[in-house]
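EI: anyone free to look at a 172-residue chain?
SC: sure, send it
EI:
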Amino acid sequence: MARLRPARTCRRPNSQAWARYSIKKPRKNYVRALPHTSLLVFNMGVQKDDYDMDIAFCPIQDIQLRSNAIEAARLTTNKYLENELPQAYSFKILVYPHNVIREHKMATGAGADRLSKGMTQSFGRPVSIAARIKKGQALFRIKTYKQNRKKVVEALRRANSKLSGSFNITTA
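SC: here you go
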């Protein structure tokens, strides 16, 4: 069974972005096949006009997060908020994963040096899709009432354990 590489291998956005994918002109694509995104739901909770607190979840440095990590954080946060604050919050994901992560798979184990071709044509295959987030850009935004602040901070602390990198919780 193929496994995902650790998040530390693709966490830094220091390489060139690969996001060119077109349905209309498939021959002009840089990326031939686009991996599916795990992230499908972006708005949760209930939209109300009388929320008096807006909390954002922002990274401390530039970071690249895979869609499955953002989805895991979304599930954790939303489940906790549904149980603790039913009908009293609005939760939004503010980024969309566009960047295609490529991987050049290498053979490992005994006799791998005879099987592997080394780095010849090492462009790599599309493996997953990620979102590039700049320092201070909000990843999640939660609107709620002021008395629910501790529960929202706890939900975001749980989300932080699912994501690589360090994040900051800011009140707007």
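EI: The beta strands are 43-45, 53-59, 63-66, 89-93, 99-103, 125-133, 140-144, 167-171.
SC: 👍
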